[in-house]
Amino acid sequence: MKSVFYLLDTAPYGSEKAYGTLNSAAVSLTGPDVILGLYGDGVYLALAGQDSNGLGVPNLSDILYAYGELRVLAHEPSLLERGLLWETLIETVELTDEEDFLEAMEKSDCVLLL
Amino acid sequence: MSGDPKEIKLVNNALANGTRKKVMNFLAEGDRRIEEIGETVGKAMLDYHLKLLKQAGLIELEEGSASLSEYGRNFIEEKAGEGTDKSPDLSGAKPVEIAELRQLLPCIADPTKFRIIANMTPSPGGTLKALEPLFPRGRYSEKVGALITQKGDVLTTIYGSGKVTITMIKNEAEAKKLLGDLKETINGAIAKGIAPAPREKVRVDPMEVYKYLPQTNCGECGEQGCYTFAIKLMGGDTALEKCPTLEEPEYATSLEHLRVLSAYI
């Protein structure tokens, strides 16, 4: 397997899916080409200034910053639908339109969705 | 167009996409018909991108043609002005504090080492670029708005938002010491109130890249040897993935370094 696309389409907090996907993507970095794609409610992970104090879970944006070499694509129409293009986003996140997002998925040897 | 922070963020996000940047640059040369724009920047998703630029107030759309709005034109001119400004200013910058060291995460390549994330307040924003000459191995990346400095194996990245990440840390004590040094260096320059003289930019040089390559000259990448591979990598004519030897576990640390280096070539 040469490339893997992790698709996250659920909100970052409230379940362990985002945490699991992020960790899995981070440990894969030494092997194949890794892309993390944020789609639907998953795009909330792209927001800067996340505060998980009080939730008792790690701050997931910190993980994105710590593994800055992880390529993160955010599906822009999903951001637009949720009014998030009016917010500050994490610097390492690439805004990607529908077509480029799909192309990145199709080009990957495997797509993983938790 | 108002100075509403939300609108400014929309403009920034609108210009963060390559296709939309191309459209803006194309329109800076004059008004264009939509078909002309499609031929130049590509037709895929063009309507969507134009709509977003319009929503951000950067362009105006009228009967099959597009033009820069007054706001859009001013924005582009301001940007061009910034590019020629060779002496970024530190006056008015406030001393920074390291607010908190938030997480220690394992380094991927070397599980005995850590990566840390810390917060710097106030967020340095645009002053980061002015700080670049303070670090002998510092590079400011316009693309991500971050200052990356290197000292031995340790890479420090400071983002405009104030996030600081450091890789290849032995323990928390080392992280705290490095963060303390970083704060002193930055505050020292801010206290003087003048930006350090811009120096000849230290670029990633091929020897540096070569140092982290396997140096086996196996030729599997299709190049004559590792040094040729390094040169081609610098020129963007090849990619790290072309070197199968780097995928081997013993080169994991080197690969991590190369990935960071190549991101900022």
Shape of chain B: globular
Strand content of chain B: 15-25%
> Based on DSSP secondary structure assignment, what is the total number of beta strands of chain A?
5
What's the CATH architecture of chain A?
3-Layer(aba) Sandwich
Low-confidence stretches of chain A: none
Euclidean distance between termini CA atoms of chain A: 18 Å
Q: Tell me the structural class of chain B.
A: alpha+beta
CATH secondary-structure class of the largest domain in chain B: Alpha Beta
| Main β-sheet, spatial strand arrangement of chain B | 4-5-9-8-7-6
Q: Biggest interface and its residues per chain?
A: A-B, 36 and 40 residues
Give helix % range of chain B: 40-55%
**If you compute it from the alpha carbons, what radius of gyration of chain A comes out, rounded to the nearest whole angstrom?**
13 Å
Please provide a written account of the structure:
The complex is a heterodimer of chains A (114) and B (265). With 114 residues, chain A is of the alpha/beta class. Chain A has helices spanning 17-27, 60-66, 76-81, 98-107; strands spanning 3-8, 33-38, 71-75, 93-96, 110-113. In chain A, strand 2, helix 2 (60-66) and strand 3 (71-75) form a beta-alpha-beta unit. Chain B folds into three domains: 5-84, Arc Repressor Mutant, subunit A (Orthogonal Bundle); 97-192, 2-Layer Sandwich (TATA-Binding Protein), CATH 3.30.310.10; 206-263, 3-methyladenine DNA Glycosylase II, Chain A, domain 3 (Orthogonal Bundle). Chain B is globular and about 60 Å long. Chains A and B meet through helix 2, helix 3, strand 4 and helix 4 of A and helix 1, helix 4, strand 4, strand 5 and helix 10 of B.
